[in-house]
């Protein structure tokens, strides 16, 4: 499982907290790096609002905020920022700097309050019932990206007369995949009795390249490596991905 808040110290988690003689609901998670350190977007999305959260809008007391609508229609709120680095209407990518950690709004110290609201309208999804109008951020982000089934392998023992391309054809895979998976540098040098690992035999998974994608990010999302993607897809120049290009990722 991905570590969604790596680099941050969690100063307060989501949920019910002791407060005075009772309990108070914390509708987000408080994250600390250092004052004015860059805040990178946890996912891609569209910025609906960036700037000082005005009272009565659903963003009051949150200081400088960036409010992002994501692919699930949820509202991700980055709050108490020292300053914002994006504008309303912008499409942002995962990892993009959206602002800087700060202590604007109702706070006692510099931190990032990150909140996931179920809706983005009205009032940017704010409801007085915060228990039921927000989601636990850690689990939300861990499940944000598709988690492909773990790779499965078939074993094949090389017989006399076999060629790697015959074996690849038989298992509906490619010579490049077999070479990458078995550390074979010369496909003509396989020997009788050699045990080959055949990954995901017959179940290739493809990904269609979108604008702004890069191989590192795609590899990360599919729990593979850039080298494997390059080899499986015969990529000559890793910086020349084309939008709409179909990549085999498994
Ligand atoms: Zn908070």
TrEMBL record:
It comes from the Bacteria. Residues 154-198, 205-249 form the LysM domain. InterPro entries: Cell_wall_metabolism_enzyme, Dup_hybrid_motif, LysM, LysM_dom_sf, M23ase_b-sheet_dom. Pfam families: LysM (PF01476), Peptidase_M23 (PF01551). PANTHER family: MUREIN HYDROLASE ACTIVATOR ENVC, PEPTIDASE-RELATED. This is LysM peptidoglycan-binding domain-containing protein.
């Amino acid at each position: 499982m991905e570590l969604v808040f790596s680099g941050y110290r969690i100063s307060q988690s989501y949920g019910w907290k002791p407060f005075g003689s009772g309990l108070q609901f914390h509708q987000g998670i408080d994250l600390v790096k250092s004052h004015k350190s860059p805040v990178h977007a946890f996912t891609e999305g569209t910025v609906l609002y960036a700037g000082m959260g005005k009272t009565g809008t659903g963003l009051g007391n949150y200081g400088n905020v960036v409010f992002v609508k994501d692919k699930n229609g949820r509202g991700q709120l980055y709050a108490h920022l020292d300053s914002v680095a994006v504008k309303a209407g912008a499409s942002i990518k995962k990892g993009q700097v959206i602002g800087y950690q700060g202590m604007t709004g109702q706070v006692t110290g510099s931190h990032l309050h990150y909140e996931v609201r179920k809706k983005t309208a009205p009032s940017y999804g704010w409801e007085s019932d915060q228990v039921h109008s927000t989601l636990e951020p850690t689990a939300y982000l861990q499940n944000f990206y598709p988690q492909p089934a773990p790779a499965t392998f078939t074993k094949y023992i090389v017989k006399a007369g076999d060629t790697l391309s015959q074996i690849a054809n038989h298992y509906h895979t490619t010579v490049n995949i077999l070479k990458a998976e078995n550390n074979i540098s010369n496909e003509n040098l396989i020997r009788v009795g050699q045990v080959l690992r055949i990954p995901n035999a017959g179940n290739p998974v493809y990904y269609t390249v979108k604008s702004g994608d890069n191989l590192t990010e795609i590899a990360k999302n599919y729990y593979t490596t850039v080298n494997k993607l390059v080899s499986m897809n015969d990529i000559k120049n890793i910086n020349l991905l084309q939008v709409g290009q179909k990549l085999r990722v498994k």
